[in-house]
Amino acid sequence: MAEVVVVKDQAAAGALAAESIVDLISGKPDAVLGLATGSTPLPVYRALASLISERGVDVSHVRGYALDEYVGLPAGHPESYRSVIHREVVEPLGLTPSLIHVPNGARETIEHAGADYEKAIAESGGVDVQILGIGTDGHIGFNEPGSSFASVTRVKTLTEQTRKDNARFFDSEDDVPMHCITQGLSTILKARHLLLLAFGEGKAEALADAVEGPISASNPGSAIQLHPRVTVLVDEAAASHLRNLDYYRYAYANKPAWQKL
Fold first, then answer.
1. Catalytic: which of 139, 165, 193, 235?
2. Per residue of the chain (261 residues), what is the pLDDT tens digit?
3. Cα gap 234→7, rounded to integer Å
């Protein structure tokens, strides 16, 4: 069962996640972070930047792998995930740019880009903690409904809903690419710790299905139920559809002091 932690707001979730990640880096200076994009993980990156600065943590050897990338956007495009990761993670945290990787969405090399990325992650020793958000249709990464639990990094066609959700980052929905390259569900499940965040009423149904619903390819987020170590950080609104909410609160309130996220 995932550990579900209900917090008062996004800043509180970011602070908890950042504390856990800094503890990881302090014990393993070359830790491998799995990096999500979008608005959901921003509180984590902001809190991390502050905590790293405050404690003088050396992050020069930290490595990172982004979850996904659009296919066909130039690397310098402001909404390419390579640009987003550099702008929202690498620069604020002071990470070493050459150690942070994003799937290659260039059309010229797309046929083997997935295999190349899988090889790179494996050669790094695997991801220590994977940051995740969840889409309104239950997708994690860009693994849309119907994605195989055995899937690896590959090209996917984005659903209309995902393109609508992401249109806020572009001039119009028509500008949102049709295809992406994303880590697969199998790839994500290989990470040693999954840290999933969800905020707002709009994510409540998808979150409840992921945490408590049947395990199904129709709900990619439900794959987290197959992982031995999952932490779910949510605000009250996102937690509002959870049937076992009282138990999650009780379990967290009585968590042993020696256990961390």
1. 139
2. 799 999 999 999 999 999 999 999 999 999 999 999 989 999 999 999 999 999 999 999 999 999 999 999 987 899 999 999 999 999 999 999 999 999 999 999 999 999 999 999 999 999 999 999 999 999 999 999 999 999 999 999 988 888 988 898 899 899 999 999 999 999 999 999 999 999 999 999 999 999 999 999 999 999 999 999 999 999 999 999 999 999 999 999 999 988 888
3. 6
For residue 68, indicate whether it is catalytic: yes
Catalytic residue among 128, 137, 165, 209: 137
139 is catalytic: yes
Nearest partner of 34 among 191, 196, 223, judged by Cα = 191
The catalytic residue among 88, 118, 128, 144 is: 144
Task: Show the tokens assigned to 230.
Answer: 């999952």
